[in-house]
Write a structure and sequence with these properties.
It is built from four helices and six strands, in the order ββααββαββα. With 162 residues, it is of the alpha+beta class. Strands 1-5-6-4-3-2 form a six-stranded antiparallel sheet. Helix 1 packs antiparallel against helix 2 and helix 2 packs antiparallel against helix 3. The chain is globular. Keywords: Kinase, Serine/threonine-protein kinase, Transferase. Pfam families: HATPase_c_2. InterPro entries: Anti-sigma-factor_SerPK (IPR050267), HATPase_C_sf (IPR036890), HATPase_dom (IPR003594).
Length: 162
């Protein structure tokens, strides 16, 4: 399956952004159980520090990590991985899962005028908050879902070594 990207036409083949090179800040593997989602959130919060988009990064990490646990083989005794990249003006977080042959990620529209059952809003929240996001992988052997947020400032560039 080709890369699928939202809010842009072509996903980068490797971590990067239209703003240039990105450096891997940190990466961690988590057990595919719901209790680990809170640890993934804390991990990202610590990694991004004072980035202006830190709260959004934590929220979107929570949504994508929950999806990995609930909708992929990562939640069946597997693992998911969180990678945090930083460029001169952009933060990128990737959630890698163990894939599934059952589902392809789909953005569901949120109807604010009606009550909806909990769930089914994760990718819609990512779509609303992220500057860019997308996914790669064939689903059956694993998938990476990623998002990018603005993270300006010289401190961010120094942390990334750029």
């Amino acid at each position: 399956m080709p890369d699928e990207t939202h809010r842009t036409r072509v996903a980068p083949a490797a971590p990067g952004s239209r703003d240039g090179a990105m450096a891997l800040l940190t990466r961690r593997r988590f057990a595919g159980i719901p209790e680990q989602v809170q640890h993934a959130r804390s991990f990202v919060a610590l990694a991004v520090g004072e980035c202006a988009a830190a709260d959004d990064a934590v929220l979107l990490t929570s949504e994508l990590a929950s999806n990995a646990v609930l909708h992929t083989d990562s939640g069946n005794g597997g693992f998911f991985e969180v990678s945090v990249y930083l460029g001169a003006s952009v933060l990128r977080v990737e959630i890698s899962d163990e894939g599934t042959s059952l589902e392809t990620p789909v953005v569901h529209l949120i109807d604010l005028d009606t009550e909806q059952l909990p769930g089914g809003r994760g990718l819609a929240i990512v779509e609303l908050c992220a500057t860019r996001w997308g996914q790669s992988g064939d689903g059956s052997s694993g998938r990476v879902v990623w998002f990018e947020l603005p993270c300006d400032g010289p401190a961010a560039a120094r942390r990334a070594g750029i």
